[in-house]
Amino acid sequence: MEISLKTLNEFVGVGVKWQGTFEEAENGDIREVFAQFKEDVHSIPNRVEPQVIYGLADHNFEGGFTYYLLVEVASIGNIPEHMLTLQVPTQTYACTEYSEQSELSIQDTYMKLHQWIENKTYELDQFNFTSLEVYPNDYNPKVDQPKMTIHVPIQSS
Questions:
Q1: Number of structural domains in the chain
Q2: Do 154 and 124 form a contact (C-beta atoms < 8 A)?
Q3: Distance between CA 149 and CA 137 in Å, rounded?
Q4: pLDDT band at 127 (very low <50, low <70, confident <90, very high)
Q5: What is the domain-level CATH number for residue 9?
Q6: Which residue in 64, 91, 134, 145 has the most C-beta neighbors within 10 A?
Q7: What residues make up the domain containing 115?
């Protein structure tokens, strides 16, 4: 598993929010929301990178988390009623690729990423969110195994 550091610039995203338990996520609830979002994404004006969908996780309550699916926009236009906007700050990340060819599960990949961060004497920087996943637009959440770049926000210790 190859891990690198990457800084992503601030951006404004438009998308949808899912909130639930880890069990609900494991049972496919996010995949359903993701599939619907992919159908609706074309209704979002001013998209910057149509080939990229961002998944932002915020472990903000006991036993569960909030997950945002977003696309970057150049400006906020008339967004669909059921969608929201979110400002994602400039951030440095420890990141790695994950796909069906990965030897580890997603959970184990996150664990290895966290171990790497600790071993390199960085600290988690989870003030804004817990992780950022970058999905290619050709990912089909209903049938594909996840393929993404996992980003965990860090700061120097």
A1: 1
A2: yes
A3: 13
A4: confident
A5: 3.20.80.10
A6: 91
A7: 4-156
How far CA 123 is from CA of 23, 45, 114, 115, 147, in Å, comes to: 27, 37, 9, 11, 26
pLDDT tens digits for range 2-16: 999 999 999 999 999
Give the Cα separation of 110 and 29 in Å (integer): 20
Other C-beta atoms lying within 10 Å of the C-beta of residue 4: 10
Residue 102 has pLDDT above 90, yes or no: no
Task: Find residue 69's DSSP bridge partners.
Answer: 16, 55
Radius of gyration of the chain (CA): 15
SS3 for the chain is: CCCEEEEECCEEEEEEEEEEEHHHHHCCHHHHHHHHHHHHHHHCCCECCCCEEEEEEEEEECCEEEEEEEEEECCCCCCCCCCEEEEECCEEEEEEEECCCCCCCHHHHHHHHHHHHHHCCEEECCCCCCEEEEEECCCCCCCCCCCEEEEEEEEEC
The residue length of the chain stands at 157
Whose tokens are 């950022």? That residue is 132
